[in-house]
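Predicting holo structure, flavin-adenine dinucleotide bound.
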Amino acid sequence: MSTIDKTLTLINFENNWCAQCYTQRPIINKISHDFNSYLNVRVVNSDAHPELAKKYNVYSAPSTILLRDGKIVEKITRFIDQSQLTTLIKYYL
Amino acid sequence: MRKYDVVVIGAGPGGMTAALYAARANLNVAMLDRGIYGGQMNNTDDIENYPGFTTIKGPELGEKMYQGTVKAGVNFVYGDVQNVTVDDQQMKHIQTDSDELVASAVIIATGSNNRKLGVPGEEKFSGKGVSYCAVCDGSFFKGKNVTVVGGGDSAISEGLYLANVTDGVNVIHRRDQLRAQKVLQNRAFDNDKIDFTWNTSVTEILGDENHVTGVKIHNNQVGDDTTLDTDGVFVYVGNFPNSQIFNNLNITDQAGWIITNDQMETTIPGIYAIGDVRQKQLRQITTAVGDGGIAGQNAFEYFEAIKHRQTVKD
Ligand SMILES: Cc1cc2nc3c(=O)[nH]c(=O)nc-3n(C[C@H](O)[C@H](O)[C@H](O)COP(=O)(O)OP(=O)(O)OC[C@H]3O[C@@H](n4cnc5c(N)ncnc54)[C@H](O)[C@@H]3O)c2cc1C
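Done. Tokens:
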């Protein structure tokens, strides 16, 4: 993962088998676009990167993690809709 | 506000079949879903009882059904339906989280959702070791031991799937025998990686700040309480209908299952219900598909009858 130069980092864990990941994906894309100047966005396929799932203690897809200065500030272990995610990001910015 | 002849709510196997039949009858059809098409088939690994396929992965069957609806001209619309109302002209207004659709007929195919255990720790560790979808979350448990709670078809078939990806599966069931189909039972009994804890209920899910570490269990016969270590808990203890949004229509029984006749008609003309959300005996893909064909055809006849009445009036 590249170094974090923006204020916040969002990591979204997904895999090909999880139906809600398909619904989550466009929301993550939109958030990435809307907060482009402030937010690093990383989408991780948990099957391809089990070591990252382990590192962040992720056991469910989709899961979304927000890091501020490299520290986890939020961990959402289910689908999250756009308005809730937007509110969370604004709170931490 | 967009206008259609028929709106199908839910794009599981039932909804996709209803939409296919209605579209092939030349109706303008919208098929709404709040997630990806496929419904509960997306949460299923191998399907072995859908005719035409000796075995097929759930998401693959969903994709094939969806391609059929696209070819027939069905419009797939994303939306979380909030409620349905009927106006003086008998038109149905379908309110989603972002839009309103209007249609002559509505086919409800919202299916069902997994019932929770309702024990301490379940909510807290949901997504942190507690799961309701083996195919979504199973791969996070490679090299670990997991627990499956339940004894029906879903519990055993998903237990078999988990035995392939994890180190071991313990099935906890509150009775002394399984409800699952015999063929699944035999496969599970023959699988070295699956063992069973009988006559036992899970009373609490335990964990540290990050994830599940065990379950507290109660033996219903002996009456004693013990703790078992486990890394994950997969819950398959039945379903409840996704029908709360239709409460205003008064079309359900006390448990929330929608009541229909064998033509899939509810008590409201032009509103049909099909698949798992309906009060019925066998909730399967084949029966959802059967319901869908009947409702799609009847929605067409309903639409034609209205059109005819309209022409006579004019
Ligand atoms: C783990 C598991 C394994 C199974 N294995 C088998 C098997 O091997 N063989 C078999 O025949 N059956 C199996 N089943 C059962 C089968 O999946 C169901 O009977 C079938 O999917 C029911 O179809 P349906 O169209 O009625 O509803 P569902 O498949 O439940 O689809 C309902 C759809 O409605 C949508 N929806 C709900 N509410 C709203 C709303 N408010 N707004 C918009 N959309 C909404 C949902 O997102 C969903 O996509 C299994 C089920 C599970 C859980």
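The first helix of chain A runs from residue 19 to 34.
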